[in-house]
Amino acid sequence: MKPNHSYITPRQATAILVNTLISGQLLILPRQLATTAKTSSWIPLILGSLLSLAILFVYTFIGRRFQHSTLPQYAIKTLGSFFGGGLALLFAASWLVMTALSSRIFSAVIVTSVLPRVSMKIAILVMLLLGTHLATHDIKTVARVHELFLPFILAIVLLLLIPTLPRVSIWRLLPVVQFQNVRLVGYSTLVAVTSFSGFEIVSLFMPFYSNLEKAGRSHSIGLIIVATTYLLILLASIGVFGVPELIRTQWPTLQLIRIIGFRGLFERLEAPFLAVYVIAIFTTVGSLLFGVVSILSDLFNIKSRLTWPYFLVIPVYYLALKPENIMELERIVRLALLIHLGIVLLVPLVILPIAVIRGKGDKPGAKQTTTDS
What we know:
By secondary structure, this protein is mostly helical. The chain has one domain (25-363): Amino acid/polyamine transporter I. It contains 14 helices and 2 strands. It has helices at 10-21, 25-37, 42-65, 71-113, 120-135, 139-161, 182-194, 202-205, 215-241, 243-246, 252-258, 270-300, 313-321, 326-358, and strands spanning 2-3, 369-370. The chain has a two-stranded antiparallel sheet with strand order 1-2. α1 (10-21) packs across α6 (139-161), α3 (42-65) runs antiparallel to α9 (215-241) and α7 (182-194) packs across α14. The radius of gyration is 20 Å and the shape is globular. The N and C termini lie close together (9 Å).
């Protein structure tokens, strides 16, 4: 345990959130929403982003209340070692599953789209090892990596999406509201909420913010950036393909990039997009594994993280290989994200009320400790 240090700037906090959220959902979310909400897909996406923003606000509020403690630390302070530690382990287990599924989606895209001769097992293993390598570094390095990659990711994605706008047909986006029943609205909104899974990772970084008062602003900007990116991709996908074709497209976002051409200047624009996609998955996997390593380090008072995190690759690798095909993979992803959402809701539903009732929290002037390595 080391004294609290202010390592993370507001811009880095935003970068961490954005890079963690943009993952495999970037490629399949338009199809998932269009399948149930059709041309009204923008409605559940906006509702889902607002609901995610509300949950993120609660995590930010708790982080300010326990301004010197990470999630496992304030869970133990509030619920005790047994229940608080168990809740922290639930987060770690869920992040491991999400890491496995993200790496599997990544390998499926790479193998089926650009590198058919590459073994899927090799692609999964390489991504897991890269993510684990990032997770072995200190929090300062992780924040700088996110800050470095964020402008590059957003710039390339936007530059590749803008040329699709002239191809968008306004008639394919109509009718604006097309829901068969209210139940589909709720289900589609739930799908949209799960597409923002991972924002709770900020609970591990907040004790190291250089300006904790700006945490809410940084987090809001980050989630709004992701929501806006998803919305642009969704509208472009529906406007270009139309709902009937979109729901039959495996990787809508990738297919959207493929139909773009700068008057013959570039023939395969999916190459730079996939390069950005690799970086996006790397930062997502790295953040989630960093969260797992941080939780285990806090719970078991592990000082060093140079070698032992690589042993986490073994179970995650076999979890990633578990789905037999793409259809089964997407079913497992939906189920895993729903379970993860339930775990995420435990913190505001359980920890916050108990912390308020018991008067738990970190005093602003008190010297608390957090693990920063």
